[in-house]
Write a structure and sequence with these properties.
This protein is mainly α. The chain contains 15 helices and 3 strands. The protein has 3 domains: 126 residues, Endonuclease III, domain 1 (Orthogonal Bundle); 74 residues, Endonuclease Iii, domain 2 (Orthogonal Bundle), CATH 1.10.1670; 56 residues, Arc Repressor Mutant, subunit A. Strand 2 and strand 3 form a beta hairpin. The N and C termini lie far apart (53 Å). The structure holds a DNA duplex (11 and 11 nucleotides). Its cofactor is [4Fe-4S] cluster.
DNA sequence: TAGGCGTGGGT
DNA sequence: TACCCAAGCCT
């Protein structure tokens, strides 16, 4: 155990948030649900939805037994509702292919819909105690600063970055807690915009500090457009479907977006994606 | 692989 | 006010 590990783990022990999916009684399914919800979504918004979700669907089988539309409805305003669809599909695959038990291996997890490298590593690690490099945006940022001396990581994961993360991943059973501790450090202290270096337990070991905190100099990071996009339109349409008890008439959808061509294209996209279904000549609903 | 895909809080 | 960004995935 190096000075670096001791400092990070001691800090985590003292400052970690009490999150329900981190508690000892949390199941692999609960961990998996949390990881789906946390994809691109802050913890504070996930908490109440996760609680309600686990109350209603405590196992993959419970979720798989209901229509996918119920998952989309329960997803609420978390955003990226196809995650709800994919979580439902993953639950179905777990029932059909894994006897209702969340697979414990990275490869088994990676094969499920909606699970990529990060989520597979996170569930294998946090849900089953396995040793995997867990590279999310927090870990990447912390290691970029601490080890590479750069303010921000590259736009996508590089081989060198993964290799560097491997060099600091403990080889004993503390690998998972190391990963979650680094993530927590990134979420609470080593933040993207205004890092609180005065509160950082490893500032004295940080290559970025040592270099004088140079500004990011890599490829340009372009922001996503939002106003007037199909995404905004789709969000409006989904809100109408979600908030209705049953099927809604076409006019209710037309009322929330005034550009007919874009509205029609967006609705067609939602039908194509399986996020909505047409139940009559002029009526639509969440999928059955 | 670059771009599409929701939502809302922080600065 | 306008970005910026938050435990990514898929095509």
């Amino acid at each position: 155990m190096t000075d670096l590990h001791t400092a990070v783990l001691d800090w985590y022990d003292a400052h970690q948030r009490d999150l329900p999916w981190r508690r000892p009684e949390a199941t692999p399914w609960g961990v998996m649900v949390s990881e789906f919800m946390l994809q691109q979504t802050p913890v504070v918004r996930v908490l109440p939805v996760w609680e309600a979700w686990m109350e209603r669907w405590p196992t993959p089988g419970a979720l798989a037994a209901e229509p996918s539309g119920e998952a989309v409805r329960a997803w609420g305003r978390l955003g990226y509702p196809r995650r709800a669809l994919r979580l439902h599909a993953a639950a179905t695959a777990i029932v059909e292919q894994h006897g209702g038990h969340v697979p414990s291996s990275y490869d088994g997890l990676l094969a499920l819909p909606g699970i990529g490298d990060y989520t597979a590593a996170a569930v294998a690690s946090f849900g089953f105690g396995r040793r995997h490099v867990v590279l999310d945006t927090n870990v990447r940022r912390v290691l970029a600063r601490l080890l590479a001396g750069q303010e921000l990581p590259a736009p996508s994961v590089t081989k060198a970055e993964r290799a560097l993360a491997e060099t600091v991943l403990p080889h004993d059973d503390s690998a998972p807690v190391w990963s979650v501790a680094v993530m927590e450090l990134g979420a609470l202290v080593c933040t993207a915009a205004s890092p609180r270096c005065d509160a950082c337990p490893v500032a004295r070991l940080c290559a970025w500090q040592e270099a004088g905190r140079p500004a990011y100099s890599g490829p340009e990071r372009k922001a996503q457009a939002w106003a007037g996009t199909d995404r905004q339109c789709r969000g409006r349409l989904m809100a109408v479907l979600r908030d209705a008890d049953g099927p809604v008439h076409r006019t209710a959808l037309e009322a929330v977006w005034d550009k007919p061509a874009q509205r029609d294209r967006s609705l067609a996209g939602l039908l194509e994606d399986g996020l909505a279904s047409q139940v009559g000549p002029d009526t639509f609903a969440l999928p059955g």
